[in-house]
Design goal:
alpha/beta, Rossmann fold, Transcription Regulator spoIIAA, 5-stranded mixed barrel, 12 helices, globular, binds 5'-deoxyadenosine, binds iron/sulfur cluster
Length: about 475
């Protein structure tokens, strides 16, 4: 048993990152049985689930979307905000009931929540029917943990491999068209509201050669798009012994000629001119940047530990807009951070009015145990925070619609991903700038890049018709 310790996370120093190759094992001891896998949270978790799925398939199992017929249930959890916890614990109520009827059921909890001390002790005390708690650093051990748990013990394996970067990971990917590629793990920024540096550990970069090899393989398999993943991709390479940085890595990935390259998430703090120039230089690096603002108030930004001012952020946006033709910028904003006043909130609205984002994810601040912000005084009533969020969302939606309307009657390249959810006679896909388009086009276009004329613009999507295949 290996338990997490949130308080010690910031002091953890990695001696030396260990690079380890994983061996694929084919022990099909649960052959023919079914697993149920549920994912909460961000793209990182979605991609981790692709690793979990490959492991479960490797045990001889097949996936089911019916909880009742599963022999193994795996929940890949998120800890970023309180409601993420509530959702998981709500769901566990159903699972507890199932376990009573079927004692052979194996229940495993992974992801960020399983890295939290308070959650692990709650599971130990109150949820004995959960068999396995595995951390974000122990995903590759899931198969062995399940094998050891076949007789119903409780096993907790968290944090034991924190300083490792694994290669040779198998993924059962959700898509055959677009793929996630981890370039680094963890985060060292320690923004004061955020739990990620505690749950995901220190920044560890994968070696460039391994990343390039993965992208080349994906390209050979017919993938049209890769999204380079990291909590803070522009910190890429800082921990490596070589001098490579994110701009150089992007350049090398671009040279593989994979048709589309994206990356998430960038921190405005170390977003370099070289990065901007590289994005502008290569047509296969998409002109789309997710650039979290969090707040427009310098006082709040300082309390958040964000390392930039409103003015620096705006200057960066200006430089990005000037250099990358047709770029779209989206953001993340938190309202109601402890001590945020109406004046501070006005500063946020001012930045939104200046940047005119193409879209944004907005959140009410959520107190996360163990983070510095959780000790800050927070007296703003929830009602006030909700009203601020509403006002912010209205403004964001206004600009998102304006940005979409600019594309009316324009020609856009769309990567088609599947049948449209709204109309089965249409397909859907994304423009280079990450705008969702429903297109009147045959399903044979799925997986292809097509040229589309935009015929209608809404707040959150576009309609279009195919111009050529
Ligand atoms: N409360 C609210 N939102 C948060 N985020 C991260 N931590 C918190 C928190 N404690 C938001 C940030 C981040 C996004 C992924 O989630 O905006 O960019
Ligand atoms: Fe959290 Fe800040 Fe790291 Fe993003 S950069 S994951 S907000 S600590």
């Amino acid at each position: 048993m290996n338990l997490p310790n949130l308080q010690k996370a910031k002091q953890r120093t990695l001696k030396e990152i260990e690079y380890k190759k994983l061996e694929t094992s084919n022990d099909e001891f649960l052959k023919g049985q079914k697993f149920f896998l549920k994912t909460y949270g961000c793209q990182m978790n979605v991609h981790d689930s692709e690793q979990m799925r490959a492991i479960l398939i490797g045990l001889g199992m097949t996936e089911t979307t019916n909880l009742e017929e599963a022999r193994v249930i795996v929940l890949n959890t998120c800890a970023i905000r309180e409601n993420a916890h509530d959702k998981v614990f709500g769901y566990l109520g159903r699972i507890k009931h199932l376990k009573k009827e079927n004692p052979d059921l194996i229940v495993a909890i992974g992801g960020c929540m399983s890295q939290e001390e308070s959650v692990v002790s709650e599971i130990l005390k109150r949820h004995p029917y959960i068999n396995i708690v595995f951390g974000t650093h122990n995903i590759h051990e899931l198969g062995t943990l399940i094998k050891n748990n076949i007789h119903g013990t409780q096993d907790i394996e968290v944090f034991s491999n924190e300083g490792c970067v694994y290669e040779g990971i198998n993924y059962a990917r959700d898509s055959k068209i677009t793929a996630w590629v981890n370039i680094m793990y963890g985060c060292d920024k320690f923004c004061t509201y955020c739990i990620v540096p505690y749950t995901r550990g220190k920044e560890r970069s994968r070696k460039p050669a391994e990343i390039i090899e993965e992208v080349k393989k994906l390209k050979d398999q017919g993938y049209q798009e890769v999204t380079l993943l990291g909590q803070n991709v522009n910190a890429y390479g800082h921990d490596l012994k070589t001098t490579i940085d994110f701009a150089q890595l992007l350049e090398e990935v671009a040279k593989t000629n994979i048709p589309r390259i994206r990356f998430v998430t960038s921190h405005p703090w170390n977003f370099t001119t070289k990065m901007i120039e590289t994005i502008a230089k290569y047509p296969n690096i998409m002109p789309y940047i997710h650039l979290p603002l969090q707040s427009g108030s310098n006082r709040i930004l300082k309390l958040m530990g964000r390392r930039y001012t409103k003015e620096e952020y705006l200057k960066l946006v200006e430089q990005i807009r000037k250099t990358i033709k047709g770029v779209c910028i989206t953001t993340d904003i938190i309202v109601g951070f402890p001590s945020e006043t109406d004046e501070d909130f006005k500063d946020t609205l001012e930045v939104v009015n200046k940047v005119k984002y193409d879209g944004a994810y907005t959140f009410i601040y959520s107190k996360r145990e163990g983070t510095p912000a959780s000790k800050m005084t927070d007296i703003t009533p929830l009602k006030v925070k909700e009203a601020r969020l509403q006002k912010l969302n209205d403004l964001i939606n206004k600009y998102a619609k304006q940005s979409n309307e600019k594309l009316l009657n324009q020609e856009e390249e769309v990567l088609v991903l599947g049948i449209s959810e709204k109309d089965s006679n249409k397909v859907y896909g994304y423009t280079k700038t990450m705008k969702l388009v429903n297109v009147a086009a045959p399903k044979e276009t799925i997986g292809k890049l097509i040229n589309v004329k935009i015929t209608d613009a809404k707040s959150f999507s576009l309609d279009g018709e195919i111009l050529s295949k």
